[in-house]
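go over this chain:
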Amino acid sequence: MKKYFYLLSLLFAITLTSCEKEPLEEEVFVDPYAIAPSDTMRISGTYVLLSGKMYITNLETYAREVYNHFDATKTTSSIRYSGSQFPIETIIQNVTTWEIQEPPYTPGYGEFILNGDTVNPYGFYTTKSNWTIVEHPSGNSGQQMGGSARPLQGHIINKADSTVMFTMQEAYESIDGYNVKYISELTFKKIK
C-alpha cells in the first residue's frame, strides 16, 4: 500500500512540475478617456451624427442582417429596432449631436449632453475600461432612459478628419417570431 501511495504522490508531483505555465503579463495603463488606447484623441467633445448601421443576429439560425439607418430618403431612425421609446434612441442624420464631458476622476461621473440640451443632461459613467451613458446621478433630469443604461464603445475611423464610430444599444428582442440580438454602429464627426 505504501508503494502505491508513493507512486501516486510521485506521479502527482511530476504532473504539477511538468505543466507549462504562462508568464504573467504586466498591467498596462490605459487612458480611460482615449477613444483608442494607442491614440491621443480623447472622447470629450461634441460630435455630430453622419451615418449609422444596425446589425441584427438571429440567435436561433445565426443569420446576420445589416440595415442602414439612413438613405437618400430617410434621415431619421431609431437605435431601438421597434422604434424609439426615449429621446436618446432617436437619431437624425447630420442633426443629432452628442457632447461628452469627462468626469474629474475614474471611476466617476461626467455628463452626456444630447442635442445641446444642457438643462437635462445624462450621466457619463466611466471605469478604467468601460463607458456608459446613464441616468444623471443628481436625479434632477428624471428618468430619461427608463432607469436603464447604455454601454458605449468608440473607435477612431479617421483621426485626420476626426470621425469616430460608436457602438451602442446592444439589445435582445423577438422579431418575426425569432429571438435576436442587435447593436447599432453610429459614425460621428467630432466638431469641438
Q: What stands out?
A: The first helix runs from residue 2 to 18. Residues 52 and 69 are 5 Å apart (CA to CA). The helical segments are 2-18. Residues 33-190 form one domain.
